Amino acid sequence: MAAVCPAPVAALVQPTSARLHYLLSGTFNTIFLYLLAFDPATASLTIHAKIRGEGPHQFWALNEERTRAYGTTWAKEPTLTATSSYIQVSPFQPRIYSAGGPTGEVHEVDPATGGFGKKLQELLYVPEDELEAADKTRVALRYGSHAIDISLPRKKVFAPHVGSDTIYMYDLEENGTLKLLAKCPSFGDEHEGPRHTIPSPDGTKLYAVTEHTSYIDVYNINADSLTHVQRVSVIPPEKYSLRKSFRGDTLRFSQDGRFLYGTTRGMTAATRGYVAVWEIAADGTLGTGSPLAEPVDSFETGTSGGKANAVEAFPFHPEGQAIARDWVALTDDQDGWVWILEWDGKKLSEIAGVRLGEGEEGEEAGVGASHAVWLS
Length: 376
Hints:
By secondary structure, the protein is mainly β. 1% of the residues lie in helices and 45% in strands. The protein is built from one helix and 27 strands. The strands form seven sheets. A four-stranded antiparallel beta sheet has the order 4-3-2-27, with no helix packed on it. A hairpin with a 4-residue loop joins strand 17 and strand 18 (226-233). The longest helix is centred in the N-terminal third of the chain and has 4 residues, at 9-12. It is globular. The two termini are 26 Å apart. The relative contact order is 0.13.
């Protein structure tokens, strides 16, 4: 299922402060949404408001104006064909894209409400005659489609499929629907499980993180195929022998496009996750461009991350300027933390954090932070 935040996002951050930056975080196991306030001057992160939602929300997307938040949810009565794990809003036309498990969907944006309008297309990741019997619950996210990402310069869309070791590649049609171009095998000799992808801003490269092996693969984006050019590891060399103790997770660029953040989670609470940072070379490769090029820095997270360890880089730096210090929101499902990390170009460090649901009881207890997005 997917949902729209019940009120315009701008209304949630009132009263606002010029020095504060606001974030919206979902949770995996409660119906509440958390509006958080980050103060760079005091390096503090606090809970500004708590909003009752439609169900546990594991992933968020914002429209271009940042006036609407769209979330995937594990509510018990899905309104989409199957439970989605990822959602994107087109920045140039009123379309919403979602994917998860056996299906994906394309919707219009309702012009009156900003919510979900007419469904334009259903994307199938199982044979059509198997769809009725296919698992459509959140369990299917572990072995089905898991994300959907748009490359604007080349009008391509990519959907990684964990279970089939495949990245589905589409043409973005003029009406916003998708035309399947290829089912591209992911790189590797074992069950890699591509989980999330992110296209380069110029549309020439696709970066994919593998769930089962915690690698980041770099591909050239061709007219109707992908060509593998590089593989790097999110986990550091001293943990290579324990690779199966981790689960690769998310990818994000710094706003200026100079760095790529990649994350992995511990398989159990006994294993902490990592956030690694690579400098992106002029040709789109990472670091030195060599196989297993090491990151500029590798940050061990405070917990395993649980189902999260998702990151979002701060998007409001002045345009056209190199970023001296970047802020990255990091969510933790294990103990319910949302952290702010600071990147200074050489080292990633934790500067603020708040634990969601701490001291709460009943339906508000045991919060597992899922994904946080920057609103301002």
